[in-house]
Amino acid sequence: MKPARFAPRAARKGNPATGLAAYRLGLRAETLAVLLLRLKGYRVVARRLKTPAGEIDLVVRRGRALAVVEVKARGEGDAAAEALLPRQQRRLERAAAHLLGRYPHFADLDLRFDVVLIVPRRWPRHLADAWRP
């Protein structure tokens, strides 16, 4: 059986049920991350922002800080913390460069890279300024 045409790209690769479940898990994780960051005083500038270098899960702002946020949802805390590989960090750095090129008014802000870890039955964990390029 072919997946529906409106299904996310991940669902069209391999097993449709697994891809769709992963897509939904990602949406729920990003929603939890948005709620956490809003409670901490951040304003969401963009969600699932697509750039030529790749997708940025969240772009948030608080004061003069502009954060590119990667959301990682895993079954265990250690797996979530280790899920962001150096290759993905470089991709996010390139995507952030595209973001700043597309929206030059953000260039005056202090750019940083954050990670939000989502683990079942635990509070989401926000790692502000998780790495420096």
Descriptors:
alpha+beta, tRNA_endonuc-like_dom_sf, Trna Endonuclease, Chain: A, domain 1, nucleic acid binding, UPF0102 protein Plav_3586, five-stranded mixed beta sheet, Restrct_endonuc-II-like
Spatial gap, N to C terminus: 44 Å
Which stretches are poorly predicted, pLDDT < 50 over at least 5 residues?
1-8
Report the total helices.
4
Given the C-alpha coordinates, what overall shape results?
Answer: globular
InterPro entries: Restrct_endonuc-II-like (IPR011335), tRNA_endonuc-like_dom_sf (IPR011856), UPF0102_YraN-like (IPR003509)
Protein name: UPF0102 protein Plav_3586
Family: Belongs to the UPF0102 family.
Pfam family, one: UPF0102
Concise description?
This protein has helices at residues 9-12, 16-39, 77-81, 86-102, and strands at residues 43-51, 54-62, 65-73, 110-118, 125-131. It is α+β, with helices and mostly antiparallel strands.
